[in-house]
Amino acid sequence: MAAIRTVLVLHGYSQNASIFSKRLGALRRECGNSVDLVFIDGPHILQPADLPGSTTPSPDDNLASLGAAEAANAGADPTLTPRAWWKFNPDKTFAYGLRESIEAIRDVLKSRRFDGVLGFSQGAAFAAMISALLEKPHLYPPFLVEGQPPHPPLKFCIAVSGFRLRDPFCDPLFAGQYSTPTLHVIGKNDIIVVEERSRTLVEASSNKRVEEHQGGHFVPSKRQWLKFLRGYMLDPSAELLSPSTSGSSAPNSGTATPTESRDGAAATLKL
Fold first, then answer.
1. How far is it, in rounded angstroms, from Cα 151 to Cα 153?
2. What is the pLDDT of residue 53?
3. How many whole angstroms separate alpha carbon 178 and alpha carbon 176?
4. pTM for the structure as a whole
5. d(CA 144, CA 214)
6. How far apart are CA 264 and CA 78, in angstroms?
7. Containing H/E element for 130?
8. Residue ranges under compositional bias (Low complexity) (predicted)?
9. Catalytic residue positions, numbered
10. Are 46 and 263 contacting, i.e. CB atoms less than 8 angstroms apart?
11. 98-109 and 122-135 are packed helices; what angle lies between their axes, rounded to 10 degrees?
């Protein structure tokens, strides 16, 4: 039986498609044959200086380090190679590699049809950008294919621990907000992308639903959350009960543990 929904999935900074697919194993099992989750790699391979523990300062003081623990073994296993959708140039004035990632997504979108997109952290910021760009494709002509958008606007976007990227490219993109139905998932105890930072992306979307969990920087994977996420992907307009509870969520999906710097503070990350 063919899946009735196809969803593009965008990993976080220093993860990759393989790592994130494994971390969303519970969600993949919950979706079964009803939702096809298509994981793709960010085009930029990260170097040691780009990973947590680097002395390179972050372009955003509100973001601590995340990084994937698996990256330490990337030399022995290429499937653990840390990747990103963008990095920052030395003077932090723009997101280096962002346009290359947009063009890579264009090539994915023109090859098949997707109902929606799900992104985590940097991937969530990028998912919202792609959703907005499909509404206003002529803002970036290289995104077009023979003068036409590569794909129709998406039916939904799910942004987990997302944020609005501080890059001039985003200003016209989010001017007047974007209208793709967007589920914003915010961790109340997220110290990587703090709630205030996630709210900047919420403010950029006009058709939104916000759900909070009491955990940190991960995709919540308690049973009620898995059912809710599957339900939303099947029908974003459905009147789904909130999965939020007063208890904390175990960080067993999309986990990103901050590392410690030499002075004991959380290291910073170039998101």
1. 7
2. 55
3. 7
4. 0.85
5. 41
6. 31
7. helix 122-135
8. 240-255
9. 121, 190, 217
10. no
11. 60
List Cα–Cα distances, 244 to 31, 227, 229, in angstroms. Answer: 20, 12, 12
Residue 263 pLDDT grade (very low, low, confident, very high; cuts 50, 70, 90): very low
Q: What is the DSSP letter of 249?
A: P
Walk me through the domains of the chain, giving residue ranges and CATH numbers: 5-234 (3.40.50.1820)
The closest of 222, 253, 245 to 121, measured between CA atoms, is 253
> How many of the other CB atoms lie within 10 Å of CB of 250?
12
pLDDT, tens digit (0-9, with 9 covering 90-100), for 162-187: 999 989 999 999 999 999 999 999 99
Spatial distance between the Cα atoms of 120 and 118, rounded to a whole number of angstroms: 7
How far apart (Å, rounded) are the C-alpha atoms in residues 184 and 161?
8
Residue 2 one-letter amino acid: A
234 burial via Cβ count (<10 Å: 0-12, 13-18, 19+): middle
Q: How many residues does the chain have?
A: 271
